[in-house]
Amino acid sequence: MFTYTILILLLPFLSFLVLGLFGNKFSHRVAGLIGTTSLGAVFLLSCYTAYEYFFAVGRGAAGVYEALVPYNITWLPLGTLHFDMGVLLDPISVMMLIVISTVSFMVHIYSFGYMHGERGFQRYYAFLSLFTMSMLGLVVATNIFQMYLFWELVGVSSYLLIGFYYTQKAAIAASKKAFIVTRFADMFFLVGILIFGYYTGSFSFSFVNELKLAEGATAFVPVDAARAVAAGGLLLPTALTLMFIGGAGKSAMFPLHIWLPDAMEGPTPVSALIHAATMVVAGVYQVARLFPLWIAYAPQAMSIIVWVGVITAFYAAAVAMAQSDIKRVLAFSTISQIAFMMVALGVSLPGHEAVLDNHAQLGYMAGMFHLFTHAMFKACLFLGAGCIIHAVHSNEMSEMGGLRKYMPVTHWTFLFSCLAISGIPPFSGFFSKDEIITACFQYSPLVGWVMTGIAAMTAFYMFRLYYGIFWGTENKEAHAHHTPHEAPWTMTLPLIFLTLITVTCGWGVNFGSFVSASGLDYPIHLDTQIAITSTVIAIVSICLATYIYKGERQPVADKLQSAMPRLHQWAYKRFYMDEVYQFITHRIIFAHISKPIAWFDRHIIDGFFNFLAWGTHELGFQIRGFQSGAIQKYAYVFFLGVLALLLIMIL
Amino acid sequence: MDYSQFLFMREELSLLAVILIIFLADLFMSKEPKEGEAAKGSKIGLVACVLLGIHTLCNLVPCCGMEREVTAFGGMYVHTAMMTIVKSILNVGTLVVFLMANGWLGREENRVKQGEFYLITLFTVLGMYFMISSGHFLMFFIGLELASVPLAALVAFDKWRYESAEAGAKFILLALFSSALLLYGVSLIYGITGTLYFTELGAMLIGLNENLLLAVLGLTLFIAGMGFKISLVPFHLWTADTYEGAPTVVTGYLSVVSKGSAAFVLMTVLMKVFADTTLASQWNIGLFWLIVASITIANIFAIQQKNLKRFMAFSAISQAGYLVLAVMGGTAQGMTALVYYLLVYMVADLGVFAILNVVEQHSGRIRMDDYDGLYETNPKLAFLMTLCLFSLAGIPPFAGMFSKFFVFMAAFNAGYQWLVLIALVNTVISLYYYLLIVKAMYINKSENPVPAFKSDGYTKVALVICVAGVVLAGIIGVGYNYIDTFAYGME
């Protein structure tokens, strides 16, 4: 059973190899078909895996979905520790398989239209396949080291895809920035992994799952290694926090978020796949994967996750309100929404005697649910933005306005997704966001109200974006010159598909019966008070946005901007975070740390090696006589060698 | 007599069958050239490659009762599962050499004696088989001689070329010298114990007091004799001259297959016969200095070589040092590391030789500055060469890095931290000279580069095997684990 799951990793890898090695031998159409077909197969396989896992196999004796490991090989043995490679199936990894394969498949289809005629089309599809393979490998990792390996691979493919237009300076700078910032965070991740491995004697996730399965007991029994760690005091919380820093880098949490807005220089479908739906939620997934450990050994440290999440959510929402580049608005919205998921995981309370508990850890389910719904509607929004950019050849809102007449399909799908992200029932975002806010109120009313406020900001800036693109002031001059047109079917079909999921999956699927903290069935129920409050607040925000931005002329918006020029400027410049980084890196680190180190490296270290090379070279010249070619001499040296060896061995 | 004992020797028998078939086929396939007509090539190369390929596949991994240790003929013949693995590695190496050889044997002056090349080579392989599976010093010596004497014929195969003939003479004279010393050592051991069976020797050499010095002398001479085959410093002086003079294909064979089998036998015999704690500490000290000398001196010489075959000779001496590093301590981990290192070194080294050979066949050029600007004219060959050189130097993610890592780990765990440190420093130096070739191919400009040419199909297959090994053997970790299941150490 499940032996076919290895294909889910192999197919995209093969497609990467074929396209990477022989891509230029194929026409664009064939190359695209190879990538898309393999991804289609992966999509079907993932759906089948999910069906079999949740329905055919179903719940085990304890009433939970058991973690299955259809593959596990020891890749590098290092004494007691060993690096393994394998496939792990459990509710969250199966859910991620669905998310990644669906969005990736849609992006593959979409790119047919979007990348039509681009130079390097084959290379683009090869990188997409590489990315998909890496991301799938990350989520099905059986141990934290495998996760780390694929984590880095994901980073590399993201780097390659952001810098896809490598002739543009901005794209190159953005790809470097993304790579360096996330690598910087990954360093902490690696240190965390090493501490974790050293003190638990294993990299495997299996003991995480043992904790999970022990929910029937009144207090769960950690494995011996884990108990030793627990006795070791702060080590495990430290390791977990370091790993969280790695996750925060990948998931663009403040203050490591600076790479994500720049990453929008990549092709738009890539933004949809990597920088909205899959890679950026890797950090959330990592925290969820280690969730039982957090709850059991580091419940206090979880407040770090909460506050980092809250600050990020607020900051990103504030910045999103002032951006004029539509992809930037979506990027900051993504940062804010991922922060929602992080907050959700963080606000889980330690349950009764550390038993995993669905009610106390509602946030776990809510966070995963939001991950799922957000992936769908945010991908749809990004792909919609791609259609718009495709039509008007610009990212700036000023070039748009009034596009609803020209692009009906894009318009309607975009609207539905906006309603979903704003949390309007019956769209999926309403359900998941509501669970998150419920969990927040459970944790502390303060966090609950702050998050409700940020949700209101979300509704506001999303509709500012929506009206800015489809209503508002139409740039008639530009449109007369070049009439916008609806995108081809390859681009609109994914939009429709993703919108269908967005519209139905909130009320159509009871997410809690698949993924929940303890693994037991958890029927989702809405807290009426919170549901009504947040819906009303969202509607008010939308009305406000309608009032300000819908009209052909926007006196209120102009007045607001001129009344608070400072605030607008600050938000537009993202509160000068990039400048702060510039200052720290250039003025402080480069000038005072890097330069002396570079000098030391160039003169002392290199000098030593140059001396070594010079010395060996000279020595070689001196002893060349040995190799004279005279056979008598060879035998003589041979015999002397035997004597020397004998002397060494006797003495 | 129990004839079923022959069943344990199925690898040797299968190889012998291959040899006989090739012998007969060669007889019927080669035609005498008519007067005034050039000799015609035959398809014997294809036959040899296919037969050896079948033989390799049939005996690839231990199965059907060969997984455990068996002895036959009263202990003369011993077989363990690990030996099957080593023999398979030798088979693959020989197969790659055969594939490489095709272009060279197709030359007019060699066409007549094509078949001989395959036969002589396979006889040396058979000798190595017997050497590996020997349980008695006599058997061991016969295997050793069967593996060395025909080698001299191979080295002198281009006998119309002065250097080849000279190299053959040098090789055979020094081989006799070392064999004589080795035989003297064995006779000393016999004088002490009165037996030549490895298992009996192992038991009788324990706790020696009065004859300890004699035993150490015998041990020294044994190590020296094997040191000649493995080409450890200071028994290496023949290497550079012989490697340079021998046909490139034969050089490749010498540097990998012949050397690798000797290293493995050195380990098994030391572990079995000289297992006594005093003797073990003696040979560990001896090997310690041989390794330090081999790696360091070979590196110093390699840097200044201008002829690539001489260069590869010193590279091979240095690599032999790493190979023997795994012998230290005689642990199971060391045995795995040795066999794995042998496999990885073989693919990378033969890959380089395949390219040296094909370039030499097409342009007759073999000096380092001939490779200037190779990337401009033959980008694919230059790229493959780079991969193989990276693996030899131990740059991740190629297999060489993993094999070096395992060897270092084995020696480190056996308690030779300083030796590992010295080897590590030398790895850095070796990086320098391997990259010299890469620099020549990619960066140096040449007014007269090797012209572009197309390699023949056989060479392409050989290169595919080698490069696949270089790229995959490391990152697919299963291989090492698989070998590890057969390893055994001294207690």
Summing up helix and strand content along with how strands pair, one would put the structural category of chain A as mainly alpha
Number of structurally distinct domains of chain B: 1
Chain pair with largest interface? A-B, 35 and 43 residues
The general outline of chain B is globular
What pattern of helices and strands is seen along the backbone of chain A? HHEEHHHHHHHHHHHHHHHHHHHHHHHH
Estimate the strand proportion of chain B.
under 5%
Sheet with the most strands: spatial strand order of chain A: 1-2
Number of extended strands of chain B:
2
**Low-confidence stretches of chain B at least 5 residues in length (pLDDT < 50)?**
none
Could you describe the largest sheet of chain A, including whether it forms a barrel?
A: 2 strands, antiparallel
Lay out the secondary structure.
The complex is a heterodimer of chains A (651) and B (491).
Chain A: H1 5-22, H2 28-57, E1 68-78, E2 81-89, H3 91-114, H4 121-139, H5 144-162, H6 169-200, H7 206-213, H8 224-231, H9 235-250, H10 259-262, H11 268-277, H12 282-289, H13 291-297, H14 302-320, H15 326-346, H16 362-392, H17 408-422, H18 428-443, H19 445-470, H20 476-481, H21 489-508, H22 528-549, H23 555-563, H24 565-572, H25 577-622, H26 631-650
Antiparallel strand pairs in A: 1-2
Chain B: H1 10-29, H2 44-58, E1 70-72, E2 77-79, H3 81-105, H4 114-132, H5 137-155, H6 162-193, H7 198-204, H8 212-230, H9 237-245, H10 248-273, H11 277-303, H12 308-325, H13 332-363, H14 374-377, H15 379-393, H16 399-413, H17 417-442, H18 457-475, H19 478-484
Antiparallel strand pairs in B: 1-2
Helix pairs in contact in B: 1-2, 1-4, 2-3, 3-4, 3-10, 3-13, 3-18, 4-5, 4-10, 5-6, 5-10, 6-8, 6-9, 8-10, 8-11, 9-10, 9-12, 10-12, 10-13, 11-12, 11-17, 12-13, 13-15, 13-16, 13-18, 13-19, 15-17, 15-18, 16-17, 16-18
Summarize the structure.
The complex is a heterodimer of chains A (651) and B (491). Chain A has 651 residues and is mainly alpha-helical.
